[in-house]
Amino acid sequence: MSAIDNIHDNYDSVFKDAMLLFKDKSLKFFELDESIQIKEPLRTESKEIVVSTEFSDLTFRLSDSKGIHLESETDISKDDLLRFCGYNVSLCRTYKMEFNTVILTNKKPSKAAINFYCLKFKPVIYFARPQISKNT
User: Fold this and answer.
1) Which of 18, 27, 31, 78 is the most exposed place for a label (fewest CB within 10 A)?
2) Is there a contact between 81 and 103 (Cβ–Cβ < 8 Å)?
3) Is pLDDT at 81 greater than 80 in this prediction?
4) What are the φ and ψ backbone dihedral angles of 104, each rounded to 5 degrees?
5) pLDDT at 101 > cutoff 80
6) Where are the domains positioned within the chain?
7) Who's near 75: CB < 8 A, 6+ residues apart?
């Protein structure tokens, strides 16, 4: 079997080689920001077998045909946001509906959103300051 017969198997390799050969001209071709340059190719082949069970705190179907996902977290880190975002995507995929994420916290986070080029995740942060009784 020749390379021509396996064109679909070789397409990604040819595309990757062309991108590397033409480097930053490739970005211009795709009308991307010309001030940015290709630094290095990253691995595109990923092989991963994962068996895990993750639990989001609470999820509900709402009367407006959307879902709500509630989490409780003291300190909200970037890793927490990425995990909650993953839960959100998984819930949307499983139930085929939009989910809003609400995070209950007692500390104001410095950053409570993820804003990557193609990934935007902005949960609602409910800041619940503990009340101190005057009788204590």
Assistant:
1) 31
2) no
3) yes
4) -90, 130
5) yes
6) 1-44, 58-127
7) 105, 107, 109
- Angstrom distance (rounded) from CA 99 to CA 90: 10
C-beta of residue 23 within 8 angstroms of C-beta of residue 37: yes
Q: 95 pLDDT exceeds 90?
A: yes
> What pLDDT sits at residue 5?
60
pLDDT at position 26 = 75
CB atoms inside a 10 Å sphere around CB 62: 12
**Under the phi-then-psi rule, with left for phi > 0, alpha for psi from -120 to 50, and beta for the rest, what region is 24?**
alpha
**Do 93 and 115 touch, CB atoms closer than 8 A?**
no
- Positive or negative, the CA dihedral 93, 99, 104, 108 is positive
Half-sphere exposure of residue 13, counting CA atoms within 13 Å on the CB side? 6
Instruction: Identify the residue with better confidence: 36 or 120.
Output: 120
- pTM for the predicted model, two decimal places: 0.61
